[in-house]
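Lab notebook, bench 4. We co-purified these components, and the gel suggests they stay together. Before we commit to crystallization screens, I want a quick structural picture of the whole thing.
Request: model the full complex, all chains together.
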Amino acid sequence: MSLVTSLIMRQMRVPIIILIIGYSISILGMVLASGIDDQGNPWHMSFFDAFYFVSFTATTIGFGEIPYTFSNEQRTWALITIYLTVIAWFYSLGKIVSLVQDPMFREALKANQFSQQLARIPDTFILICGFGETGHALAKALTERNIHTVVIEENDKLIQTLPLEDFPLVIPGIKGDARDPEKLILAGLQHKKCAAVIAVTASDETNLKIAVTSKLLNPEICVVCRSEIEEFESNMFSFGTDFVVNPFETFADIFGMAMHSPSLHLLYDWLTGVPDTDLTNPIYVEEGHWIICGFGRFGNDLYKQLLKSNVQVTIIDPSEEKREAFLGRPENKSNDFIIGTGFDAHTLTVAGVTKAVGLISGTDNDSNNLSIIMTARELNPELFIVARHNKKSNEKLFEATHANIVMQPSEIIARKIRTLLVSPLMIAFLNKARNQDASWANVTISRIMGALGDSVPSIWTLHVNKDEARALCQVLHLGRVIRVGNLLQNPRQRENQLEAVPLMLKRNQKLLLMPTNDIAIKSGDQILFCGTPGALRSMQWSQNDIHSLNYIMTYEDTHDAFIWRKIQQLIKQSDRRNRPRRKRHIMK
Amino acid sequence: MNREKVVFSFFMILALTLNFGFFAGEVDNPSHHNVYELFAVIIVNLIATVLKFGDRSQMGAMLLATSLVALVQLFSASIVWAYVVNIQGNEMTPDTMSTIISLSGGAMIANFISVILLIIETSMMRH
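Here is the predicted assembly.
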């Protein structure tokens, strides 16, 4: 019996007993009371009559004095019956209503609903701790890729919005403090279908606690953490947290990529984007004089990236301490750091905004950032602007500024974590792609565009093993050769190519970028593909369906059913019997 | 002393004794079996059953089950009675009476098991 039903039953004991007692007193009284029948003889109600009378009286239906007109004694009992049973009913109904409104009962009901939703998830799921902006963006991104998620969040309001929003999959949500291990277990931490825990609450400390709890209670699980402070980051890694995502570092990394190799950045943007959206245009970041407003974590990380290129950087920040720390390093000149806020024209002019090519408004206050952008644009309309966007609610304002790059921490984290979880090979691919030159990236981009058209591709990994590619393994086991190019043939019309591009092949820890079509597949390989969702479905046919694979490979088709196999064997045998005779005939 | 236990034991044992009172006598002799006693058994049994609602212990579940069995038997007996006497309008016959009594005999066994379970539970308690 679940907690909720047991709670209801326990609470219902007293009202039901009161009803039983009320009914039994009334029935007994009605039976005992003496009456007169239509012939004038003394008469007593039977239990059946009494139960009938009390039932319609208690429910205020009131059919009247049945079967004979009552005597005064019976009427006295009827009065008692009316007051006793009607009050008993009112009391019981009131009790039920108050039970339904009881906060404890509601909590139990919600917990029950949550565990039912959890049980109904058919696949593995990912537990997201914290349903703020990042958690929200992540839940959206993961469910869009058909991955089930479960949410735990402290704020009741955020949890209540869950069912109202239009996610592609049902997301079970539970209210609770994720620092509490009990709550995490309740949310499914030790559930056998739980594949990963993502800690994306606003506080690094909470994320740390979640990571520790998850690794202790379920060491198998993949743990991903959001962290903005370096100390916490190293602490998280110390006990085996699988991934720590720092929004500023991640963004600076992407920014660096855009600066050094726009085509590589474009590739990154496509392959990590949301499938079926339009492809973005490349961003060209110019070298020259740059201004950074706000020298916090964000400004600092970008500064390091800018220094890698041939640029001159001027920093604007109101903090004296930061200036001293900056000037403490001998290579820095004093006029590279200006004390000020950056949203007044004077400071910006002193920093040289009129001659600068780019400006980074990286304070942690959205109004300041907007003000800096407006002022700088007035002074120099040609500026390349990188804006830090802190609060999601200001999205429209940042769109209106037409900044070249807008950095939104929650989006950055959501994208990074989604890539980590959806396709681990993708990260390896991107890391390897970094070491390639720009012409490689250009060739890859044109190949993807040529094969797929102009929307963001889906990413998938083909694992050549018995579970995920049954037919493929079967055929490979026979010693036949299947090449990467064969997989790209359409199982409906083998002359046609599927809209997919193989990005990387992983074999025995070795990675091969952009495998060519003539490479033979071996059992145990992992191949990363990008392509249209339709191509993924078609490819799954040729992986798992022996007939489709036979068709592609132009093998003779084999029959599944016993009878057909026998007939096929018979035909082959008769062929063989016929053949030698003909040969002999020829020899003569 | 646990008041809940006292109340429950009271109703459980009362159900058994009343049931026995109704059951005792010649099986097919209507004058040996009082209709008020059957009524009382049903009411007391109902209360005993409701008192076990929402008990999540193993013993609670067993007691609920035996009480429900007794109730089913007693309801059948009373329905037979009401059907023959009130709906068909016949006099009570020895045949009908023996059916009713055998049904209430089954209920008595269920009530007896309840009381035994109650005794086991009590003796297993250590204070």
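Residues 259-422 of chain A form a domain with the Rossmann fold fold (CATH 3.40.50.720). Worth comparing against the SEC data before the next meeting. The mean pLDDT of chain A is 84.
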